[in-house]
Amino acid sequence: MLFAHGSRFGGHALYLKDNRLHYVYNFVGMLEQKIVGRHDVPAGENLILSASFDKDGEDPPGISTGILSLYQGDRKVGEGRIKTQPGMFELAGEGLCVGRDSGEPVTDDYPGNSPYRFSGGTIRRVAVDVSGDPYIDLEREAQAMLARE
Question: Average pLDDT of 86-104?
């Protein structure tokens, strides 16, 4: 478990299962939308695993639709169409969790048992960016620029 927000009544989670990156968006407890990476997550340090949502419409108004993409570094490893619910995920009393999903799970697809803790490494940082700007790995960009000179 890398990140979980909400519960089976509405929420989303990013986690590892069978050595693949998984993302699930549980739409108000009625529709579970899963995206699974096509490639195994490599072993190593300083891995950046991420999910990015690109809104492309609303159906009906107020419910966003778009493409959810999964990344390992800057390599896209999966994508799928999802819809997102308006409002907050705290309806069932559970907020944001990092490295675990300790309350009512967002999905029954998690490996292991509650509290669904992350194991096998260290989560150094989790960032949630709702700016709408694409993710840029500034450190990698700087290294590439120095290598060209």
Answer: 75
Alpha carbon 103 to chain centroid, angstroms: 18
Distance CA 35, CA 14 (A): 10
Give me the numbers of helices (H) and strands (E) for the chain, helices first please: 1, 8
Q: Cα–Cα distances in Å, from 142 out to 45, 48, 135, 136?
A: 19, 16, 15, 11
What's the whole-number mean pLDDT along residues 81-101?
78
Q: What is the pTM of this model?
A: 0.84
Rounded CA-CA distance 70/25 in Å is: 13
pLDDT in tens, 118-134: 988 889 888 877 777 76
Contacts of residue 35, defined as CB under 8 A and 6 or more positions apart, other chains included, come to 22, 23, 24, 51, 68, 69, 70, 78, 79, 80, 82
pLDDT at residue 92, rounded to an integer: 55
Q: Which amino acid is at 44?
A: G
Asked if 76 contacts 69 with a C-beta cutoff of 8 angstroms, the reply is yes
